[in-house]
UniProtKB/TrEMBL annotation:
Gene behind this protein: similar to Protein yellow
Family under the similarity heading: Belongs to the major royal jelly protein family.
SUPFAM superfamilies: NHL repeat (SSF101898)
Residues in coiled coil: none
Membrane-traversing stretches: none
InterPro entries in the record: 6-blade_b-propeller_TolB-like (IPR011042), MRJP/yellow-related (IPR017996)
A GO CC term attached to the entry: extracellular region
Compartments, as annotated in UniProt: Secreted
Keyword set, alphabetical order: Secreted, Signal
Signal peptide stretch: 1-16
Protein name: CLUMA_CG001074, isoform A
């Protein structure tokens, strides 16, 4: 009798702690200067509603930043924000830092067929090279996939400089890091990744920032190169970068077959998701967790390795990397984020329409992987996630495979979901 009574309670607790919808869009719209400006953008082809797909996010105070990569022509603005206090279900996006930073003279509808796409790897290596538009406006954001806000109120933007990726790719600017002061909305610095650190298949779609509030000037950024299997490390203090290679940055050839929303495709994306553990001393020493997208395995390396250029780029560093374990079948992931309040790493589950979790104090085994939420409607292709300073998880889902390989229906395709980390792990192995 006791078992019969307890079981429904357990089910109720589990279902009551699923993620909640914060925002949802059928298609994205923007805070245009005027209705006339919007209509002119539509007429000229600079704004094509169905070509605007949200991909990355991060949170600062009342701003939820959302990226919109230029997969196709007609993307109005690649870096934007909405206000968390907004009450509308589908709020308009505000371009950041301003509209002028997203005015691209060459962003017009293409007339050629789509480029081949294999995850992060495209035919962009043959992209038309246009004059560097950063020479006219250094604040310009061409196309960004993921961003990171650090403890020092700085927004770090990995800008690929590439427009119309799936159509007629145009390299409007070199790969670069743009760093903004969120208190003033001014550009602090633009760092161009040296040409010899960008390979033929390079594709930079993520950025991780390693710093502490008391040492803002000593920041490092880690840029996974998912297309040519390396990590570019940027030293903010010395305004210098270097390229680090390792076998663990490659994809698993047995894990590149994916099926999402009935769409089957094969990707070869290497190192992509990265998360930073908590500092263990006053020097900021911590663990860097990482995995390839086309893989189910998780790895780690001390940040002291990546921050030491001489050691990181030598053969001696090979055994400083660790295989933590395997998440299990069909557990490929695009993004991960560590929550220091629960000691849990949250990660996307693109093959399962889900969000997973792992408590770093437990062995990395399939049995210790939890499932926070799974939803074949709201969580179709969870693409990015972050945890804010208050312990709230934000997840962005966007049905990207349908956007690339199929057709999105006239329904709610893009969502932001949230949940308190301490609550959503209840009843999972992560608690």
């Amino acid at each position: 009798m006791k078992f019969i009574l307890i079981l429904p309670m357990i089910v109720a607790v589990s279902s009551a702690r699923k993620l909640d919808e914060k925002f949802a869009w059928k298609e994205l719209d923007f805070a245009w200067p005027s209705e006339e400006a919007k209509q002119e953008a539509i007429r000229s082809g600079k704004y094509i509603e169905s070509h605007n797909l949200p991909l990355g996010l991060d949170i600062w105070q009342d701003k939820l930043f959302i990226t919109v990569p230029r997969w196709k022509s007609g993307v109005a603005s690649s870096l934007n924000y909405v206000k968390l206090s907004e009450l509308e279900r589908s709020p308009v996006l505000y371009p950041y830092p301003c509209w002028e930073a997203h005015d691209l003279p060459h962003d017009v509808p293409s007339t050629e067929g789509d480029a081949n796409y294999g995850g992060g790897r495209t035919d962009a290596k043959g992209a038309e090279k246009v004059e560097n538009i950063l020479e006219k406006n250094n604040e310009t954001i061409v196309s960004t996939f993921r961003i990171r806000i650090d403890e020092c109120d700085r927004l770090w933007v990995m800008d690929s400089g590439l427009a119309d990726i799936l159509g007629s790719p145009k390299q409007l600017a070199p790969n670069s890091i743009a760093i903004f002061d969120l208190n003033t909305n001014k550009l602090i610095r633009r760092f161009i990744i040296p040409a010899d650190q960008v390979k033929e298949d390079s594709f930079f779609a993520n950025i991780i920032v390693d710093t502490q509030t008391s040492h803002c000037g000593d920041a490092f950024a880690y840029l996974p190169d998912l297309g040519s299997y390396a990590v570019v490390v940027y030293d903010f203090k010395n305004d210098h970068s270097y390229r680090v290679k390792h076998n663990f940055f490659h994809f698993d050839p047995l894990q590149g077959d994916l099926t999402v929303a009935g769409v089957n495709f094969q990707w070869t994306d290497g190192v992509f998701g990265m998360a930073l553990g908590k500092p263990t001393n006053e020097h900021g020493d911590r663990t860097v967790y990482f995995h390839a997208l086309a893989s189910t395995k998780e790895f780690s390396v001390p940040n002291t390795v990546l921050k030491n250029e001489t050691f990181a780029t030598s053969n001696d560093a090979y055994f400083a990397y660790t295989l933590l374990g395997d998440r299990g079948p069909k557990s490929q992931s695009t993004a991960e984020h560590y929550d220091d309040k629960t000691d849990v790493i949250f990660y996307t589950q693109i093959n399962r329409d889900a969000v997973g979790c792992w408590n770093i104090n437990k062995p990395f085994t399939p049995e210790n992987q939890g499932l926070v939420d799974s939803d074949s409607d709201a969580l179709v292709f969870p693409n990015d996630l972050k945890v804010d300073n208050d312990g709230t998880l934000y997840v962005l889902s966007d049905r990207m495979p349908l956007f690339i390989y199929g057709t999105l229906k006239s329904e709610y395709n893009y969502r932001i979901l949230t949940g308190k980390t301490s609550e959503i792990i209840t009843g999972t192995p992560c608690a």
